[in-house]
Write a structure and sequence with these properties.
The chain has 161 residues and is mainly alpha-helical. Helix content is 62%, strand content 5%.
């Protein structure tokens, strides 16, 4: 048996339930909050994925650059070895003798170049300072070197060297 009090609390299936206005307004707000949370989760997930992709790309580029740096170091060592062979004193001597026609100096022969005389400041009659040498000619290194070369060349032509 069903009591009359129980029937009054349960609505009949054909009767419509009445929802209060507060509950009607609360349902769209809850849906909006839920959609916002889903959207926020999607954006955060997308951000994490993009960061991981960027980290993977940077790691890949780092590996490429390290391989390129290894190749450049090997090439640099090869160039350095070739340079050391080219500037070796034995090779320079061989090129000087064979291609430039120079001759080796005699054993115990010394080449002495006179040292240039420093310029002395003097005053002329007008009181202005000028550079000059007193009583000696100024000797330039280039002239001395050319004189030595011409002497060697003339001696080699005469059969002395």
């Amino acid at each position: 048996m069903v009591l009359a009090g129980d029937q009054a609390l349960r609505p009949l299936p054909q009767e419509r339930r009445q929802i209060s206005r507060a509950k009607k307004k609360a349902l769209p707000v809850q849906h909006l909050k839920l959609c916002g949370l889903v959207l926020l989760g999607f954006v955060l997930g997308l951000t994490v994925i993009l960061c991981q992709a960027r980290i993977a790309y940077v790691g890949y580029r780092l590996t490429e650059l390290q391989m390129e740096m290894t190749q450049v170091r090997a090439e640099n060592q090869a160039i350095d070895g070739a340079l050391q062979r080219l500037v070796a004193p034995e090779r320079i001597e061989a090129v000087a003798v064979q291609k430039l026609g120079m001759i080796k100096p005699a054993a115990g022969a010394e080449l002495k170049l006179p040292a240039p005389i420093p310029a002395v400041k003097t005053e002329n009659a007008a009181g202005a300072e000028c550079e000059g040498v007193t009583g000696r000619k100024e000797v330039s290194w280039l002239k001395t070197f050319l004189d030595v070369l011409s002497f060697k060349h003339s001696n080699a032509a005469n059969g002395w060297g």
